[in-house]
Design goal:
The structure is a homodimer of 230-residue chains. By secondary structure, chain A is mainly alpha-helical. The first copy, chain A, has helices at residues 10-26, 33-40, 44-51, 54-77, 83-100, 102-114, 120-143, 155-168, 170-177, 184-200. At the A-B interface, helix 6, helix 7, helix 8, helix 9 and helix 10 of A face helix 6, helix 7, helix 8, helix 9 and helix 10 of B. Chain B binds a DNA duplex (30 and 30 nucleotides) through residues 1-6, 8, 10-11, 32-34, 42-49, 53-54.
Chain lengths: 230, 230
DNA sequence: ATTATTTAATCAAACGTTTAATTAACCAGG
DNA sequence: CCTGGTTAATTAAACGTTTGATTAAATAAT
């Protein structure tokens, strides 16, 4: 009814929000542009007016998601902290991001599964950036003796997998596996567990600390758990 | 041209094979039934003749994939071996499965991302079975002192994630991350690294064995690496 | 009055599906 | 061994629907 004109946000933002949710839920091919319009409460033609095409809308969302993740990662793993602290911070931030942007994450994961055309460029750029940062960090940790001489080419992928899986299987996990809501507390538990498992392993041969199973007890002094992810 | 009648396999099998590949590559919604027919070299009506509908074809493929994985897992983690050996065997078998059935795995992963309708039942059943087996195994390992008291509810998910990620990111990994082909040798390296990391962790605080980084050195005597997965 | 925004109506193309007809294999009875 | 009828396998053509996209007109803002 009202015709704001003030800025290009009102309808455009609602379209982007509706599209993000539907693309995440159903994927690109099974999301009709009319469904997006209905959910956003606008006419279908507005989508072409603002985004040019269905693919333009999709790319716009994708671009935003990837750049957000990239920025998050770069600012997270940098800094003068120790290797372990930097890796722990990566896990914390990544897990927190998963909580606050589940739809963007799912869209990215779908794209990675496909691996094709649309954004092999952007998904690749996103994944390669993360990978390289983590690999260099781990390699440096091994060099200084802070880490064991593990397979530093594969270890970053493993670490990403340990975090990603909790968003990847989220529908199943929250429905049938663990009797918990996916709230901030649970995400903190995921991060603590992941860090503990990655650094200390599951084997008892070394005789490590024996903290109770699900307690979120990790030291890391000034750590703001599940903190700002924007 | 030939009209075999002998059994219903010839065309039906070609349809299933073509559909499996296309569904894995593009997903359900972006795969046209005509494309499947063209790739299989049959008429589009044959798909309805054999499978009733597009969804019937998809469900048929999905069912087969899930039951295969389920059978693989059940027979793998059972047996009188120790906890560590059983978990290691799970990783070996799962990684080998990934190598030999990448398309089925990708279809299952897509379904898990969606989490909806189609087979929330079957995907859930598949995942819950895996999860329960692993959880019980890990819990038992903790009880006997073979494992540290880690978060045994989350640990199975982490372990699955450490394996799944290598199929999940496969296009990106083989294209830009690790300069290796996805052959049996690489899958063995993945399995060795995963087992090493899961049991021993990346930290050096405990003073564990110091085998060189990418060497596939794990003892596990009669282990047939990347063995029969059918 | 002019521009920017939104709408309803409409388009050709592509979709999954159905139908009717055709072809090859099988199996009687002669 | 033929032969005619039955059945299963396969095809080409068309169906109705939905899709992404476009347009011309209407409405609001400047």
């Amino acid at each position: 009814m009202a015709r704001p004109k003030i800025d290009d946000s009102e309808a455009r933002a609602r379209i982007a929000a509706a599209a993000e949710e539907l693309f995440a839920d159903r994927g690109y091919g099974e999301t009709a542009i009319r469904d997006i319009a209905r959910k956003a409460g606008v006419n279908a033609a507005m989508i072409h007016y603002y985004f040019g095409s269905k693919e333009g809308l999709y790319k716009s969302i994708l671009e935003g998601a990837a750049s957000k993740v990239r920025a998050l990662l770069v600012q997270t793993v940098s800094g003068p902290a120790s290797t372990k602290e930097r890796l722990a911070q990566f896990v914390d931030s990544y897990a927190a991001y998963i909580l606050s942007h589940p739809n963007l994450a799912r869209i990215l994961y779908r794209e990675m599964l496909t691996g094709g055309e649309h954004l092999m460029r952007i998904a690749q750029q996103y994944a390669v950036t993360n990978y390289t940062i983590l690999k260099d960090t781990i390699f440096e940790g091994i060099r200084t003796g802070e880490l064991r001489p593990i397979d530093y080419e594969l270890a970053p992928i493993s670490l990403m997998g340990m975090v990603v899986i909790f968003q990847f299987l989220r529908p199943i996990i929250s429905a049938a596996l663990v009797t918990t809501k996916y709230d901030e507390r649970f995400v903190n538990r995921i991060a603590s567990h992941t860090i503990d498992l990655f650094f200390n392993g599951a084997g008892s041969s070394g005789g490590r600390s024996k903290e109770p199973a699900t307690s979120p007890g990790r030291k890391k002094p000034g750590a703001k758990r599940g903190a700002k992810v924007r």
